[in-house]
Amino acid sequence: MSAASSAAVLADVRRGDRAARGKGTTAVGDPGLDAATVRRWAVSSVDALAGRRREIDALNVFPVPDSDTGTNILHTLTAAAGRIRGGGESAVRTAADALRELAAGSVDGARGNSGVILSQVFVGLAQEAAGGGPGDTLDGRGLSAGLTRGARLARSAVSMPMEGTVLTVIDAAAAGCAGEGALDSAARAAAESAFEALGRTTGQLDVLEAAGVVDAGGAGLLVILDCLVETLTGERVHRPAFERSVDARLGRSGAAIARLDLSDVAAAAAPADRCSASADEYEVMYLLDDADDAAVAALRRRLEATGNSVVIVGDGTGGWSVHVHLQDAGLAVDSGLEAGRIRKVRITHLGVQQSRQTGLRPGRAVLAVVDGAGAVPLFEAAGARVLSVDGTASGSALLAAIGETDAGEVLVLPNGAVRSEDLVVVSAAARRQGQQVLPLPCSSMVQGLASIAVHDPHRPSSDDTYAMAEAAAATRCAHLRVAETRALTWSGTCEPGDALGVIGGEVMVVEPRASTAVATLLDLMLGTGGELVTLLVGAAADDALASAARAHVDQRHPAVELSVYPGLQSADVLQIGVE
């Protein structure tokens, strides 16, 4: 969200507040939390976070020292404040209404680990207000119960809860206001307890102690709670600035802040286990809809098996926000697609800030790994450099191709031809030569073509990468292959020579005739919608197969546009992409 759009959203919210309470009137000593007070609290929090964003960013050393926690929390609260106004005056009349919109907006607009976790504070308050009677107000006991509920939701959402983080500060705030009946007294108690707990976080995590800082997410929560006190009482809460301690130590275990020493990065040919696994490469976030509890639980297990900082939270209305740090961004996106319908996919390279300090070369390039002579000109015509391979690309060949681009930022389209472990090692090795590698989640060439189609070298790198990743994630792909041996598949037993339709890594179609398999595969792919089908014809396919596919689409799916290209790839008889 741009600064201009954020300002417009907040201006709308403020205009609605003035209309609700009368121009020039300040709410002081409100007996309970009503809808108008929730609006003023949201606006006040955004204003305060905007003023302290850089201060909180500077505290951010855990779980990744990327200095963006203040920015992420500000974005989260800005989205939440806009959601209250977006609900309309007629829809937001009670505290329960306002807190429900605040919760939904914070989950929908959550950024970063802390933003996702803090959204659960609002979800807890919203659930408490919704279950506490008519919903006109929320008193001190309701605030305590809501914070307690939010603390429980936040802990259950985090794969590995740790003390000394924002979770600890939320717990302290909830416990601190227990038993307070008056809302203003409860708010004061919650804020003071959070402040005391925040000061203790430095000694609870080695990485915080090493840097001499308090937890950045906890600092953001304290700002929000202090704004609640000011909204209710009209009295501004004065806190000391959050700064790094001058006597920062290495911590109880002697651990310092983890930083990648580029001089010690293993060569590209080194084994994958020589590469540091403590520095995750990507932060992946998206919103998940149409997923039941079982699908969400399965998604959590898969992400926990492959990544860190897994946080999956609900908005209380059936939607979910997913956050994970891992080295294979495509796996996180594919896992979400298996669980339900994903949107607002956001992929951030966690090493960008550090790499910018190492002196990157100028310029940006897109490098596509292509298996098939026919697909090479397709990628080149779209502006990509091409590494042509026969099967799988070696790490050394990929590193050499990255170097030949002579660009500081290289967006790599792996297209299913690069092993993830090779990609990690090559990315680290490329930093030694002043290049930042940004792999995109393309597991096939049809996804790569969709991604390169939206590439714009004139856009900022972050925007371009996001748009390309989103295009790849929105393209469903399937593969037609030929069985080499007799085997048992999900769709039954196949014999040598049978045509196999593969979707998501599983054999979904087994047919003796390739034309029948293609027709069945197309029907499966288009059964959930689609406007454009792309066929990449492999070296083993004949002209009759492509003609049969075209005839089937024309007859059974006449509204769908079909594009056929000679990919000449060796592994797949056909690659099918649906957008």
Protein described:
With 579 residues, the chain is of the alpha/beta class. The chain folds into four domains: 199 residues, Alpha Horseshoe (Serine Threonine Protein Phosphatase 5, Tetratricopeptide repeat); 74 residues, Alpha-Beta Plaits (2-Layer Sandwich), CATH 3.30.70; 112 residues, Rossmann fold (3-Layer(aba) Sandwich); 103 residues, Hypothetical Protein Tm841, Chain: A,domain 3. It contains 20 helices and 16 strands. The strands form four sheets. It has a six-stranded mixed beta sheet, with helices on both faces. The radius of gyration is 26 Å and the shape is elongated. The N terminus is likely disordered.
Q: List low-confidence stretches.
A: 1-30, 246-280, 353-358
CATH class of the largest domain: Mainly Alpha
Rounded to an integer, what's the Rg over CA atoms?
Answer: 26 Å
CATH superfamily of the largest domain: DhaL domain
Please tell me the overall pLDDT.
80
Identify the strand order in the major beta sheet.
13-12-9-16-14-15
- Fraction of residues in β-strands: 15-25%
Q: Which architecture of the largest domain does the CATH hierarchy give at level 2?
A: Alpha Horseshoe
Number of helices: 20
What would the CATH topology of the largest domain be? Serine Threonine Protein Phosphatase 5, Tetratricopeptide repeat
Q: Summary?
A:
This protein is of the alpha/beta class. It is 47% helix and 16% strand.
